[in-house]
Design goal:
It contains three helices and four strands; from the N terminus they run H-E-E-H-E-E-H. It is α+β, with helices and mostly antiparallel strands. Strands 1-2-4-3 form a four-stranded antiparallel sheet. The chain is globular, with a radius of gyration of 13 Å.
């Protein structure tokens, strides 16, 4: 899959909710704060199932109730359309459960 240009990434971010460019790891990321640890883990489980379905997987950092999703295409070495699609699926799942 083709890498997106920086302009394409910037345009894609405008259609997503709370995602930002992460230059160090050539990814996009979103941090979500959940009410507590276990609701964060439930969100991660929902995202994990969606990722399996899509065949495309976020890197996930869990710190108590704060979950950061990083999306990059390892095989391409950067951000692709598959990352934008997975980010949108994560947004849908977060919208269903998020407290703030
Ligand atoms: C064979 C399989 O499709 C690949 O290993 C997929 C799996 N999920 C993946 N997820 C992400 N984020 N990047 C990849 O390059 C990737 N590769």
């Amino acid at each position: 899959m083709d890498l997106l240009t920086e302009d394409q990434i910037a345009q894609g971010l405008q259609r997503l909710d709370g995602w930002e460019r992460e230059n160090q790891s050539n990814a996009i990321r979103r941090t979500v704060r959940m009410p507590d640890f276990l609701s964060g883990i439930s969100l991660v489980a929902s995202v994990a199932h969606a990722a399996e379905e899509a065949g495309h997987h976020p890197d996930i950092d869990i710190r108590y109730n704060r979950i950061t999703f990083h999306q990059t295409t390892h095989a391409a070495g950067g951000v692709t359309e598959a990352d934008m699609e997975m980010a949108a699926r994560i947004d849908d799942l977060v919208s269903g459960v998020q407290a703030g």
